[in-house]
Amino acid sequence: MTETHENSGTPENEAEWMPRRKFMTRLPAYVGWAAFWTWIAGSSIAAIRYMFPKVRYEPPSKFKIGKIDDYVVDSIDSRWLKEHRILVVRNPEGLYVLKSECTHLGCMVSWFNSETRFKCPCHGSFFDVEGDVIGGPAPGPLVRAAVSLDPTGNIVVDTSQIATGPEDRKKRRFLLRA
């Protein structure tokens, strides 16, 4: 005697239906394959990103800024401020280059002609035309970069060579005599 139930809860087409026990026995395989393909995708993305490294492009440490006659005596020239973060100072003694980074936290200082001083906008440090600290939290003077002339008469600035103290300022490589 076989009994048939009219409403047994199974779909009409048996091929579309998977019993719970069969699904539960295949579940580790499904999870395993999903993990495997996730690992493959992640490894592929990492390999592609490896081909394009994150590089910090900085301006070169040696660059030309023109002839000495391009700079007016007793003036501070800020035309290279955005590109190389330097200020060119020309006085009767010669020409020198100050890096425009405050020695307190590295903010960019600017020259104020009306007050005849460099000012840091971040924390209020003041520097004189030589780069010495007048006031504020800056621990030291503005840094000078090395300057020289190439054979054609162009001024070459080397920001990898710096003078941090007053004793270095009068050295030949930090003051270009005019």
Provide the CATH top-level class of the largest domain.
Answer: Mainly Beta
Number of strands: 11
Overall residue-averaged pLDDT value: 85
Percentage beta strand: 25-35%
Q: What kind of sheet is the major sheet? A: 7 strands, antiparallel
Helix count, DSSP H or I runs of 4 or more residues: 3
Distance between the termini: 119 Å
**Structural class by helix and strand composition:** alpha+beta
Write the layout of secondary structure elements.
Blueprint: H1 20-50, E1 62-67, E2 75-77, H2 81-84, E3 86-91, E4 94-99, E5 110-112, E6 117-119, E7 126-127, E8 133-135, E9 144-149, E10 154-163, H3 166-169, E11 176-177
Antiparallel strand pairs: 1-10, 2-3, 3-4, 4-9, 4-11, 5-6, 6-7, 7-8, 9-10
Outline of the structure:
The protein has helices at residues 20-50, 81-84, 166-169, and strands spanning 62-67, 75-77, 86-91, 94-99, 110-112, 117-119, 126-127, 133-135, 144-149, 154-163, 176-177.
Can you walk through the features of this model?
By secondary structure, the protein is α+β, with helices and mostly antiparallel strands. It folds into two domains: 15-50; 62-177, Rieske Iron-sulfur Protein (3-layer Sandwich), CATH 2.102.10. 22% of the residues lie in helices and 28% in strands. It has three helices and eleven strands; from the N terminus they run H-E-E-H-E-E-E-E-E-E-E-E-H-E. The protein has helices at residues 20-50, 81-84, 166-169; strands at 62-67, 75-77, 86-91, 94-99, 110-112, 117-119, 126-127, 133-135, 144-149, 154-163, 176-177. The strands form two sheets. Strands 1, 2, 3, 4, 9, 10 and 11 form a seven-stranded antiparallel sheet that branches. A four-stranded antiparallel sheet has the order 5-6-7-8, with no helix packed on it. The longest helix has 31 residues, at 20-50. The chain is elongated and about 100 Å long. The model has no long low-confidence stretch (mean pLDDT 85).
